[in-house]
Amino acid sequence: MRFETIAIHGGNFVSDSEKPVIQPITLSTTFIHQENSMIYSRANNPNRASLEKLLASLERGEDAAAFSSGNAAGIAVFQALKPGSHIIAPDDMYHGLKKGILTLFDGVLEASFVDMTDLEKVQEAFQENTKLVWVETPSNPLLKISDLEAISKLAKSKGAILACDNTFATPVFQNPLLLGADLVMHSSTKYFGGHSDILGGALVTKEKNEFWDKIKNVQTTGGAVPSPMDCYYLCRSIKTLPYRMKGHAEHAMVLANYLSQHPNIEKVYYPGLKNHPGHDIAARQMTGFGGILSFQVKGDATTADMLISKLKYYTNATSLGGVESLIERRAASEGPDTKTPQNLIRLSVGLEHLDDLLEDLDEALK
Ligand SMILES: *Cc1c(COP(=O)(O)O)cnc(C)c1O
């Protein structure tokens, strides 16, 4: 099956004798004992099984594990490591997961945060106990691009697992497992859900192995699993993912070009722009540049806040990946120890009419 077909048919498994076209939501927490049946919903559930099958197919992996949030998925990978292990992670990384490494695994795991766009720095960061290389590409919020093939070669030569946070690209635009990664992580809260109304996360593995068994144990014994309702709604949302992503990326490219030519804008970060330092790698490893862009206004935090307050169609809120455009001054969300520039605005470009989005920005920038 091709991608769009998988998105529609790959997560719909009907065993009901009434033969509904769409898989019903199985709310039961427990199942009648019989051979090969599911037992208990924390361990497995028909809607979660469908979602996991769908996610594994979309990411071209062997198996997937769904979680109650993106953070729960990421943390499960760190929990599966042996105490004393060392992680190489990006300097520009989703701040919630960085916080997880620093606060929940303080004294348990070691971590080096490096510029993943600099392969020499990545190579130098390896230690004898390095077990995991964590990549996020494009990264949040600076849209840095990491070379997945090159980093996977480095990780392999050192016997480390390579995991990639693929939330921004989605499998529509990037399949890290085909570029050498061992694991893919998603916040399904973002594009998979696509309507800012589901919290969820997922991991997909290239192959079932000992490390994957540990992760599955964190999922089912740790118990940070999504509800059958959430799994149902995710399968429903993913049916339109390929078409939504095309729209998001098309709009983002136009807005990025518009902003880069505007006299009141200092800098635009979007991998689709030719002057983006990661453009060539992105063009090679992605089939589209995604729907998120960041930009710095000429001025300070107050200038940026003022611009945001003038917009009509862009909602000032955190998160991303919904059909509605969201905008925020990122440093304000990341807190006092952030390295993100104070005048940097992150924009999750939605699916409103492009002319409305352009006119609104143009008006506010005057
Ligand atoms: C939102 C996000 C996460 C965390 O996901 P939650 O669903 O909020 O727990 C991780 N990585 C990236 C890139 C994100 O955007």
TrEMBL record:
GO cellular component, one term: cytoplasm
Modified residues (N6-(pyridoxal phosphate)lysine): K190
Cofactor names: pyridoxal 5'-phosphate
Keyword Cytoplasm on entry: no
Gene Ontology MF annotations: carbon-sulfur lyase activity; pyridoxal phosphate binding
Pfam families: Cys_Met_Meta_PP (PF01053)
Family: Belongs to the trans-sulfuration enzymes family.
Protein name (Swiss-Prot/TrEMBL): Cystathionine gamma-synthase
Naturally occurring in which organism (per UniProt): Algoriphagus halophilus
